[in-house]
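lol so apparently i was supposed to do this last week
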Amino acid sequence: MKIRFIEPGNQPYRKSLKNYFVYDKYIRTPSNGMITLATILKREYEDVFCYSESISEIVWDDVLDSDIIFISIFTFNANRGYELAEYIKKKSKALVVFGGLHATLNYNETIRYCDYVLRGEGDELILQFTNAVRDNAAIDFPGVVYKKNGEIITMGEPEIPDNIDTIPDRNLLYKFREVTKYNTIWPQVHASRSCPHNCDYCALVAAFGRKVRTRPPESVADDIEAAIEFFSGHKRLAKVLWITDDNFFADREWAKSVLNEIIDRGIKYSFTIQIRYEVGFDDEMLELLKKAGFDELSMGIEFLEDESFEKYNKKSTYEEILRSVKNIQSHGMRTRGLFIVGADNHTKGIGERLADFVIKNNICGVLIQSMYFIPGTPVYDSHKDKLIDTADWSRNTGRVVHYPQNMTAAELQREIIIASGKIYSFKRLLQAIFRKRGLERILFIGEYFWQKGIRRELKKELSYLEQLGR
Ligand code: SF4
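anyway here it is w/ iron/sulfur cluster bound
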């Protein structure tokens, strides 16, 4: 059997020279999930290969004569995925099968464009499915969705795999090794899955549940070494490996054992990871992180008001966030802030307040996104009548996608522009060049130009949002 995987881009791939140096909208790090599933199938099937529009074009001559084509989608690339599926259906006899976060939560929508949807995590399901296709057997197990006589058939909830321990074979992705020279393509490793919390806007727990599973620490360290080796051949300015877990620290003892494994093996690299604010109170963990090479921690700060934390079920307070940031900094690590604007209580001026908080508390960099509403999450259900567009998901890249309560959509988008402009101002660029050192300086310079590009895109859209009038 010939099997191909496709990860669509937000838009078709376009080569971008800018991406050799700084972030750009056209190229991004491909997701680990697709390569992991391809690796699982490759153990039993000879002809398995992947394409990701986040780094390359799709070689259709190689794809169209496949037996099965798996397409993996998040929300931001769902429409592009459907476009590709329609093209494949016209040109090929392959079975088209969708999976991924968006397909899992929206199988009723996704099934319109394909033969099957595989819901949930595919570690076991994908092999079961592929074997059934090969053996011409019934495809009637939990997690599968298909159409029969125009009716959507759902075979029940997918099972949650306990064994998630696969080291992805990165060579299975077309042109991956070649693009590792891009400064903005990062080595990444996924060490554990899921999170015991349940923030209202979180698609992860809505799709995959709250049962935390971990990989053996030795295997995680092997994976880290393999990822570093994969990226070793090229000169990159910023060498950072991203541990992509949503909540690496959910199992504290396990997290410590992974960090100890990195330290014991003497792996010398720079790492970054997402954290919740509680990690900032754990001195033992912070010391281990620092020792293992984590110079920067990305904190899901989200909001600056206790009212928002409460409203969206994020168990946190402003005072705790502040204390956590300070303690991390006192351990010699930088804090990056991940923020959401457009909460129901947000008013004009939120952009300015956010920027002031970031600058005053020496947050080294930010990711600001407008409140997002992935179908299947509680926040989607409570706001579905306030969404600007529920057919085109491609705007879900951080832009304003809803009519906020206390301002217009255009005003909210302006608040993001204001915050980004103040944090990444020319004056602060000069300060970074002359006062910051090493990786911190390189990252700020890169982000300055990246954020400039983001603001340009956001500004272009303002007239469209203004026309909406709400
Ligand atoms: S803490 Fe993060 S991963 Fe966990 S539920 Fe909240 S948003 Fe999701």
